[in-house]
Design a protein that fits this description.
Chain lengths: ~140, ~130
C-alpha cells in the first residue's frame, strides 16, 4: 500500500509521462511522414532514454521504489531535453526545425518539437522538486 | 495481412472488450481478483493468461518505431516481464491486487483508460496498417 504523499507523486509522474509519450508518438509520425531517418545510435537513444525510461519511471512511481522512479524520470527528461534541443534547434540537419525536407508534416514536426521541449522542461522541474521532497523525508 | 497486423488487431479488440468489461463490471473484476488472491497461486493464474499474449507480441510484433504500433510492443514486453515475475515470485501478484471498499474503482479507472487506447489501436491496425 503506498502512502498518500507517494500516491500524489505517482499521479503527477503519470500525467507528465503520458503527456510526453503522446507528444513523442506524434513527433515520430512527423519523422515518418517527412522521411527524416535517425542514425542507429540515435534510434537506440530515443527508444531507451526518451521512450522507455519515462515509462519505467511511471511504473516505479506506483511501487515502493517511487524515489528511484523520480530520479529515473529526472535523468530521462534531462537526457531527452538535451537531445531534442540539440538536434531540433542547434545542429543543422534535416532534423532541424528550420531545415526540414518538404512535406505536409512540417507543421506537425515544428509543433511537436516545441511541445517536446515544453513537456521535458515540465518533467525536469517536477522530477527535481519531487526528488528534493522525497530526499527530505 | 502481415502477422504483426493480425496481432495488432487481436490485441486492440481484446483490449477494448476487457476495457469495457472493467468499466461496466468493475465489482465483478474486483471479486474475481480477490478470489484468486485467496487461492495463494494468483501469480501463476495471471501469468497463465498474460504470458501467451505477451510472448505472441514479443515474437510477432516486436516493432520499435516512434509511432502507434510501439504501444502494443511496449504492452507485450510489459505483459511478458510481468508474467515471468509473477510465475517465479507469485506473491508479487498478490501484493498488487487492490483490496478495500473502493477497490472496484481502480478497475473502472483502468477500463476507462483502456478504451481510448484500444480505439486508437483499432483505428491504426484496421485502417492504416497493411
Amino acid at each position: 500500500m503506498i502512502s498518500s504523499a507517494n500516491r500524489r507523486i505517482a499521479l503527477v509522474v503519470t500525467l507528465v509521462v503520458l503527456a510526453h509519450f503522446v507528444v513523442n508518438l506524434l513527433h515520430g509520425q512527423a519523422h515518418t511522414r517527412l522521411a527524416i531517418a535517425l542514425a542507429s545510435w540515435q534510434q537506440v537513444y530515443v527508444i531507451t532514454v526518451i521512450l522507455l525510461a519515462p515509462l519505467v519511471a511511471l511504473v516505479l512511481s506506483w511501487t515502493r521504489y517511487a524515489r528511484a522512479g523520480v530520479w529515473l524520470l529526472l535523468v530521462s527528461m534531462l537526457g531527452s531535453l538535451i537531445f531534442g534541443a540539440v538536434y531540433h534547434y542547434v545542429i543543422i540537419s534535416e532534423d532541424h526545425v528550420a531545415h526540414l525536407p518538404p512535406g505536409d508534416a512540417r507543421g506537425l514536426f515544428r509543433v511537436t518539437a516545441l511541445l517536446l521541449v515544453v513537456t521535458e522542461i515540465v518533467g525536469v522541474i517536477v522530477a527535481a522538486m519531487m526528488a528534493r521532497s522525497t530526499s527530505k523525508t | 495481412m502481415s502477422i504483426s497486423t493480425l496481432i495488432a488487431r487481436f490485441f486492440s479488440v481484446s483490449l477494448l472488450i476487457v476495457g469495457v468489461s472493467h468499466l461496466v463490471q468493475s465489482t465483478l473484476w474486483r471479486d474475481f481478483f480477490l478470489r484468486i488472491k485467496d487461492t495463494g497461486v494468483a501469480g501463476i493464474i495471471i501469468a497463465m493468461y498474460t504470458l501467451p499474449q505477451g510472448l505472441l507480441i514479443v515474437f510477432g510484433h516486436d516493432i520499435w518505431v516512434l509511432d502507434i504500433p510501439v504501444i502494443i510492443t511496449i504492452c507485450g514486453w510489459g505483459m511478458t516481464i510481468k508474467s515471468i515475475l509473477y510465475a517465479i515470485v507469485p506473491s508479487r501478484a498478490e501484493a498488487v491486487i487492490p483490496t478495500g471498499p473502493h477497490a472496484h474503482r481502480k478497475y473502472a479507472w483502468g477500463g476507462a483508460l483502456m478504451i481510448p487506447v484500444s480505439l486508437l489501436l483499432i483505428w491504426h491496425s484496421f485502417f492504416r496498417a497493411v
